[in-house]
Structure formats: C-alpha cells, structure tokens
C-alpha cells in the first residue's frame, strides 16, 4: 500500500517556479494523506491570498503530475487552499484543462514560456552558487571561462545546476562548459564574463531574498506550520 511518505517524496520534486525550491521545504504542503484504496489527497497553501495565479497553477499542476506518477496511487486530489483563484485552479488542474481553459479571457497563453523563463533564471542563480566558491579560492575570470562543468567540485549546487540545464536542453555533461548563456545555449567567453557573473549573482540574491520573504509571510499567515523542513 502506498503511504504518505511516498507521496511527499514525489512532492519534493515540485518546485516553486520563481524560487526554484521544493514546495515541501518551503512549507507549502499543508497536508498529505493516502487512503487504503489509493486516493492521494494533498492540500497546498501559499504565503498570501493573492499569490500570482500563474505561479500557483504551475505548482498545483506539477503536484498533480508528480503524485499521479506514484506507484499505487489510483486517484489524485490536489487542493489549493485560501487563494483567490483556488476554485479555477483546482477545477482546471483536476480536469487537465490547462491554464487558458481554466481562466478563459483572463489568460493570454499557456505557461510553457513562463516556465522556461524561470528555469533560465534558475540556471543563472545556480551558476553563481557554483562559481562563487571557485572565485573565492582564487580562480580568475579567464580560468572560469575555460572550465567545464566537471571541473567544478562535486556539490549539491553543481548537480542542481546540471539538472536545470538539462531541463532546458542545454549541455549538462561533465565536459560541457561551466559557463553557458541560458538563453542562447552558447558558452560565455572572457569578454562577456563580468556581465554574466553580475547577472548570475543578482538573480541568486533576488531568489534567496524572495525565498526568505515567502517563508516569513507563510509563518505569519499560518503560525503553526504543518509539513516541511521549516516546520
């Protein structure tokens, strides 16, 4: 019989698209149960009532896909609570309708492009996380431009960067360049390196600042957290 731990493990793969962090560690999973007949019931919550509906839709849809793929789950029910668009999101995801069909004239397009934009930002932020220790250890810009991904010391940050690059279809094996423009897919040369690293740092700082703000707002909204690493 499938248990809640298996479903939570699947939810670990679902990320806030803007923060590039799992909904589980962010505390966005309010509850998770699995019935004896294989019905997985997951309730999600967000830091504010007015969190962007496109971001929320992505997380609910991704949670639905992740949980539905768990062995033994016969039916998946994902419920977003306390959100102004929860009715449209919950019903749309349950019906597999897509964002446009769920929101009608309020939606301009599906969310594939938005998802790609956020993965590109995740690549930039990940680049900073991997490169900062190298620069602190005395590596020069010219040296960084000549390094491959496999030249960076093994770390969770390097593997996270590898995974995000792979999601974009960018080279992600050890022999691929460490520094790649996430938009063009081309290696970053020495001349473009200073600007690229500044963008990477600003992207990483912005994401981490937003993550802290979201966690604080979630604690204020729900003083007694349920599931998640920060509970």
Report on the architecture of this protein:
It is a single chain. It contains nine helices and five strands. The chain has about 230 residues and is mainly alpha-helical. It folds into two domains: about 110 residues, Fe-S cluster assembly (FSCA) (GMP Synthetase, Chain A, domain 3, 2-Layer Sandwich); about 100 residues, no CATH class. About 35% of the residues are buried.
Number of domains: 2
Strand content: 5-15%
pLDDT averaged residue by residue? 95
How far the N terminus sits from the C terminus, by CA atoms, comes to: 27 Å
What is the CATH C level class of the largest domain, in words?
Alpha Beta
Note the total helix count.
9
Number of strands: 5
Largest sheet: 3 strands, mixed
Q: Please list the strands of the largest sheet in the order they lie side by side.
A: 3-4-5
Proportion of helical residues: 40-55%
| Assembly form of the protein | single chain
The name of the CATH architecture of the largest domain is 2-Layer Sandwich
Q: CATH topology of the largest domain, anyone?
A: GMP Synthetase, Chain A, domain 3
- What does the radius of gyration come to? 19 Å
Shape verdict: elongated
Order of helices and strands: HEEHEEHEHHHHHH
Poorly predicted parts? 227-231
Summary tags:
disordered C terminus, mainly alpha, 9 helices, two-stranded antiparallel ribbon, 231 residues, single chain, 5 strands
Outline:
By secondary structure, this protein is mainly alpha-helical. The protein has helices at 4-11, 23-26, 53-68, 86-94, 99-103, 112-136, 141-145, 156-167, 193-221; strands spanning 15-16, 21-22, 29-34, 39-44, 75-80.
